[in-house]
Specification:
The protein is an alpha/beta fold and 161 residues long. It contains six helices and seven strands, in the order ββαβαααββαββα.
């Protein structure tokens, strides 16, 4: 699988330069499945210490304007946080699509195991790598960083209607 950086797919964030996202083949056509209610699997590689925000912040608090439609839509999704000590064979009893969010997903064995297990057990899975050098095997969408601009662009993409 190869990630393709597509310049025409951009999300404007506060009048700053547009954020460029990379997409695996076929992902853009399937995005609508993930733009409603979904279950979020948050890998510990993208914890609040990495994001530079307080420990109690959620992803929408880290990346979206408080009270914005994006924050409200994304904030309604249940989140499962997974770390290296957790069982990689997650059993997600959900019929909703699953969005796995991490940074450098291919860099650690446990993150690869979690992604593989979720892909094997769930029907609709979207894997987002917010690391600087994503591996196409473990990224359906690459943001090439996890700062507020890129996070906001991702949330805007995943809450578009």
């Amino acid at each position: 699988m190869t990630l393709v950086a597509e310049p025409e797919v951009r999300a404007e964030v506060r009048a700053e330069l547009p954020v460029r996202l990379g997409f695996a083949p076929g992902v853009r056509e399937s995005l609508a499945r993930f733009q409603g209610r979904c279950t979020v699997v948050r890998l510990a590689t993208l914890d609040n210490d990495v994001l530079g925000v307080p420990r109690w912040y959620t992803l929408q608090e880290a990346w979206a304007e408080p009270g914005s439609p994006v924050a409200q839509l994304w904030g309604g999704n249940p989140v499962v946080s997974v770390g290296p000590a957790d069982d990689p064979e997650l059993v997600l009893a959900t019929g909703t699509p699953v969005v796995v969010v991490g940074a450098d997903n291919a860099a650690a064995w446990w993150t690869r195991q979690v992604v593989d297990a979720v892909r094997a057990t769930c029907r609709s899975v979207l894997v987002v790598d917010m690391g600087a050098r994503p591996d196409p095997s473990y990224a359906d969408i690459a943001t090439f960083g996890h700062d507020r601009r890129r996070g906001a662009a991702l949330l805007t993409l995943l809450t578009a209607s």
